Amino acid sequence: MAGPYDMLSTAKILMGQTEYQWPYYLAFFITAYDDIYGWNRLNDIFNSPYGDMMHLFFDGTKSSSEINNSLPTKITELINQDYLSKFFNGEEPEIFAALQENNLLNWAPQTPIRFYHGDADEAVPYQNALTAVDSLRAMGGNNIELVTIANGTHESASLPSILGMLGWFEKF
Question: pLDDT, tens digit, for every residue of 95-146?
Fold first, then answer.
């Protein structure tokens, strides 16, 4: 299914956009990494007042829709411009290392893998699926396949992906 298998490239693609209609995902992603790695940098990364709000957003009492509707879709309104500049200039080695550590493409699959991804996915970049297929094949995966849902958005590709996956699993 659609997923951010290459974490560093995903971060670059999402933060490199002018607008992102799913700021919930970006906020969750950054807040989780900040917590796990103990950076304590939410106020450096997010513009005010969002840095102070992140732990309140992700305390388990709000839905993804509520959070998404509370955040700006314009990247430079959500994320601090100084942070963005440092990130894209390679001046955030701690963050780059964490993203690379969580890359899901550094292994050689021994069993068949079939990815499903809509090529118009606005939440998770389609490039992730292409990179995953190429990377896993380069690592020695011989039975890697990508099923592209033509014009499939994150939502519209969900059902065809699930049905395709279920049908594929039944073959085994």
Answer: 999 999 999 998 999 999 999 999 999 999 999 999 999 999 999 998 999 9
CATH of 7-101, one of 3.30.210.10, 1.10.260.160, 3.30.450.20, 2.60.40.10: 1.10.260.160
22: which 2 tokens? 């799913």
Contact 117, 157 (CB under 8 A): yes
Cβ neighbours of residue 134 under 8 Å, at least 6 residues apart? none
Reading the block at residue 80, the tokens are: 């601090």
Domain with CATH 1.10.260.160 in the chain: 7-101
Omega prior to 125 cis, within 30 of 0: no
| pTM confidence score | 0.87
